[in-house]
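@channel sequence for tomorrow's demo:
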Amino acid sequence: MAAAVREAYRAADWTDFSHTGPGTLAGAYLRSFWQPIHLTQHLPFGRAVPVRVMSEDFTLYRGETGTPHLLAFRCAHRGTQLSTGWVEGDDLRCFYHGWKYNGGGQCIEQPAEPQPFCDRIKIKSYPVQEYLGLIFAYLGEDEPPALPRYPLLEQEGVLDNRVQMLACNYFNRLDNSMDPVHVAFVHYWARVGSQFTPGRIPTIDAEETPWGF
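structure tokens (generated this afternoon):
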């Protein structure tokens, strides 16, 4: 983890698991994994969209060849939101003055400049991969690890990907997922006649696994 991130935190902040923006401890940790950021079906060929992940904005676009790319949110020239521009081949052209970037973030055209200096302009880009109907991105600073594979989900059958917006922090959601006791109270109305009814608290046990909870 970058020294600047460590130095930005006081001793009391080491328990801050909830904030995930740039420069936070939890943010640095989560950026060391591939993260699903978009549904494949929602990114047509030749389209650019803004995406916000862990309090940070990015530009996601699919080239006309079908390849997805993830770039910084704004053009290096005048700060225009790049997703308002348009796709040309596998490149993205800014809506404001027409600067064009390739999928690696390198500026390759500056139409209004008498003496272009494209070689000196490069915005941030991030590795992306498509898998199981999702677009995954690696937002960390280091070389990305291999994208995990799930052979069970690759088998023949119906794979249904959906997006659910939850008005809470990711850490609250994880904590809630590992808490079966609350079901007997919060969700008892949908579980009448089952073990999850008021007064019938489930017995909890757990075991460690190589893949998480």
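heads up for whoever presents: Helices lie at 3-7, 25-30, 151-154, 170-177, 183-186.
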